[in-house]
Write a structure and sequence with these properties.
mainly alpha; 2 domains; 4-stranded mixed beta sheet; two-stranded antiparallel sheet; 23 helices; 6 strands; about 65% helix; globular
């Protein structure tokens, strides 16, 4: 065993150890959660209560979302079985992360890697900050990637393509997140490059029929609400201009929010470029180069990320597939002997070490601050009765209620498209009809206008909140507003939340 290989294996082992060790603190703090996590958990809570995709506007609350059903359906099933709602989301994310790491290890084993090298590749899939945060989150980003990894592992070894099982896994991945079609495209392309055109056509047909079936069943089960929600909120503000700006936006956000994942993706790209001459011969040698499949997956993941970043409101969680695919590519490039394999093993060691450092940083953050503590402090300060208007659905969920607003990002798009349907909500906010409003931005802060114009709620509803409510303090990132005038015309007292830093 060479020194470089030993370093790569050791760094991957450290990454896996630190990642597992930091999880209890991450679960206790809830710092990986955000208002999008609240959307996923609200969808699960609604389903557990009997509503599969709530209407866009109704007396019981306001709907609209672009999320597909598999993940929150599993959350709802666990919730109905008696598991606390937040625990269901976190447990499913952890299980999906382990499944994704195992899927990358299986793909590498199919490519000829030894067990230790395959395990290191699986650990490398956890190196990026986007994936590290997703581990302790309650969203639907990890499960579709895990299913995609296992689907690609099923076709990784030439001559044993298993297109049927791969298609089933890819359809399930699509049911969790539509961007999983990137992996399906990669699988079809690789089968075609191998000369297995019949298998490629069979796989493409099965995935197409399965995806159409997922949409049809979801639409039927939701009584027509699913497609209405997608049409209203899937891509607000997207267009040719945002598509052209997507590469710059992706690179800037990755550098700011996920530098480890960006390093992983860039190093994988460097290795793919170095292997390009050999990969170009894949058509002649029936795609036997083990680097071909992950290289095509990385290319498809980049394309999917760029399309996703053309939609305003997307974040670094959409880089999870790119990180996992890049880990698979680096792992296959490290196979064999020679200078190229040694360079790839050095990249594995570097990325794994950087991922371990990033995980330690998250661990330190989780030990010194807590989003869940902030939410609990806000919940204690809420009025004893009445349904609050909260930008973050986690606040009413952790208070034991059902959020009035499912998805604050979708609400902006839906309300802008059909303002008459939301006239009563706007009037209620302007009149201070809700006992409290909980926001994620201080309305007096310089960046508040941009946050609400391009992100959640929208400027029209926020203007009504300004007119009907006044600040009553803040805890960490949460800002509490109370009506300017109570129903009897008096000025209500402050809700008892002092403006202070996040609880320790």
């Amino acid at each position: 065993m060479t020194a470089v290989r030993r370093a790569a294996l050791a760094a991957a082992a450290v990454l896996a150890t630190v990642t597992l060790a930091r999880l209890p603190a991450a679960w206790e703090s809830g710092n990986a959660l955000n208002h999008v996590s609240g959307v996923w958990l609200t969808l699960a809570d609604d389903l557990a209560r009997g509503t599969f995709y709530r209407p866009l506007h109704a007396a019981g609350g306001f709907g609209g979302t672009r999320y597909f059903p598999l993940v929150f359906t599993l959350d709802a099933a666990l919730s109905r079985a008696g598991v606390p709602l937040l625990a269901t989301g976190v447990a499913l994310s952890l299980a999906a992360a382990l499944l994704a790491a195992a899927g990358i290890a299986a793909l590498l084993r199919a490519a000829g890697a030894a067990r230790a090298d395959a395990a290191a590749g699986g650990a490398l899939a956890l190196a990026g900050l986007a994936t590290q945060r997703a581990l302790a989150d309650a969203r639907g980003d990890l499960l579709p990637v895990a299913l995609s990894a296992w689907a690609l592992a099923a076709i990784a070894r030439p001559g044993r393509s298993r297109a049927g099982p791969a298609a089933l896994l890819l359809v399930l991945a699509f049911a969790a997140k539509p961007t999983a079609l990137a992996a399906a495209g990669a699988a079809v392309a690789v089968l075609a490059l191998r000369g297995a055109r019949r298998d490629a056509a069979f796989l493409a047909g099965l995935v197409a029929v399965g995806a159409a079936g997922v949409v049809a069943v979801t639409e039927l089960a939701s009584s027509g609400r699913f497609l209405a929600a997608l049409a209203a909120s899937a891509a607000p503000g997207a267009g040719p201009r945002t598509l052209l700006a997507a590469p710059v936006r992706l690179a800037a956000e990755a550098a700011r929010e996920d530098p480890t994942g960006l390093v992983l993706a860039v190093l994988a790209g460097v290795e793919a470029a170095a292997a390009a001459p050999a990969l170009a011969r894949a058509r002649r040698d029936r795609g036997r180069d083990p680097r071909l499949l992950p290289a095509v997956w990385v290319a498809a993941a980049w394309l999917g990320a760029l399309v996703t970043y053309a939609v305003p409101g997307t974040g670094v969680n959409h880089l999870v597939e790119l990180e996992v695919a890049s880990a698979a590519l680096l792992g296959t490039c490290a196979l064999g002997r020679g200078r190229a394999a040694g360079r790839a093993r050095s990249a594995v060691a570097l990325v794994a070490a950087a991922g371990a450092v990033a995980a330690v940083g998250l661990w330190r953050e989780d030990r010194t601050s807590s989003r869940l503590a902030e939410i609990r402090a806000v919940v204690r300060a809420l009025p004893p009765s009445g349904r609050v208007f909260s930008e973050d659905p986690l606040v009413p969920l952790l208070d034991g209620g059902s959020p009035l607003v499912l998805d604050p990002f979708a609400l902006r798009a839906v309300a802008a498209a059909d303002p008459d349907a939301f006239a009563s909500l706007a009037a209620g906010l302007g009149a201070g009809a809700f006992p409290a409003v909980v926001l994620l931005a201080d309305l007096d802060a310089p960046g508040a206008e941009a946050w609400y114009a391009r992100g959640n709620l929208g400027p029209s509803l926020v203007a009504r909140i300004r007119g009907g409510y006044r600040s009553s303090g803040a805890v960490g990132r949460y800002h509490l507003y109370v009506p300017r005038r109570a129903a009897d015309g008096s000025v209500p007292r402050d809700a008892g939340v002092a403006r202070r830093e996040a609880p320790r």
